[in-house]
From TrEMBL:
Primary gene name: coaX
Chief subcellular location: cytoplasm
Enzyme Commission no: 2.7.1.33
Subunit comment: Homodimer.
Keyword terms: ATP-binding, Coenzyme A biosynthesis, Cytoplasm, Kinase, Metal-binding, Nucleotide-binding, Potassium, Transferase
The family this protein is said to belong to: Belongs to the type III pantothenate kinase family.
The protein's role, per its UniProt record: Catalyzes the phosphorylation of pantothenate (Pan), the first step in CoA biosynthesis.
Catalytic activity: (R)-pantothenate + ATP = (R)-4'-phosphopantothenate + ADP + H(+)
Protein name: Type III pantothenate kinase
Length: 254
């Protein structure tokens, strides 16, 4: 089993995985104030809670879109395992052809998602990753990463609305019932969830029109499960997509 870690702006995803199975997937809040020791304790606690010892880790890999925390997490894993993790970045073998204006500017999370999607789905593929930002990426029929869009994530949108309107409360994002809300909280929740679902449906339609083909559709990310079930397109949800991509990259580069 390898330890796979993705450092995101809101959450750090920590998982145990090998080529045949995902053993666990957990999330902790991204906290710039934590030390490498505190993160090492977090990782060890997660493994203990899932019934695994540090000795079961054969190797590790990290991807990050939060540069100030990258070395902190690398050091935390080193402290636990005694070895330095692989880091997704420039120079790593991905097998992915990135057709962008500046390929080096593409976020490591998008690359990792694309690598995993290409293993499990037939291109063209549209990959939706819902976190702090929602990204929708396109892989063409030849397996090339050709671009996508980025827009504010659910929680960012909701927090912005609540903080800027005194009478609109902070709310949860549990699954709504009817789309027409009968009170302020339901109206806000429905607006965020159904609004994002409709936006994703519309984006998929326009992207498929542009590539002139129907695409395989896959979604991941901590908030995706709240929205994908409300979409009219049939979208496969894979909570461990990013970890699967990290496992593939580990095998390619170890």
């Amino acid at each position: 089993m390898i330890l796979a870690i993705d450092i995101g702006n809101s959450n750090i995803v920590i998982g145990g995985i090998d080529s045949s199975k995902t053993y666990f997937v957990e999330r902790v809040n991204t906290n710039h104030r934590k030390t490498e020791l505190e993160y090492a304790v977090n990782i060890k606690d997660i493994m203990d809670l899932n019934g695994f010892s540090i000795s079961s880790i054969e190797g590790s890999i990290v991807s990050s879109v939060v540069p100030p925390l990258t070395e902190v997490i690398l050091s935390a894993v080193r402290k636990l395992t005694g070895s330095t993790p692989l880091l997704v970045g420039s120079g790593m073998k991905t097998g992915l052809n990135i057709k962008m204006d500046n390929p080096k500017s593409v976020g490591s999370d998008l690359i990792v998602d694309a690598v995993a999607a290409l293993k499990d789905f037939t291109p063209p593929i549209i990959v939706i990753d819902m976190g702090t930002a929602t990204t929708v990426s396109v892989i063409d029929q030849n397996g090339n990463f050709t671009g996508g869009i980025i827009f504010p994530g659910l929680r960012v949108s909701l927090d912005s609305l609540s903080s800027r309107a005194a009478q609109l409360p902070y709310i949860g994002l549990d699954k709504p019932g009817k789309i027409i809300g009968k009170n302020t909280i339901d109206s806000m929740k429905n607006g965020i969830l159904y609004g994002n679902a409709a936006m994703i449906d519309g984006i998929i339609d326009r992207m498929q029109e542009e590539i002139q083909m129907e695409a395989s559709l896959v979604a991941t990310g901590g908030l995706a499960s709240s929205v994908i079930s409300l979409c009219r397109h049939k979208i496969h949800y894979d909570d461990a997509l990013l970890l699967k991509g990290l496992q593939i990259l580990y095998e390619k580069n170890r």
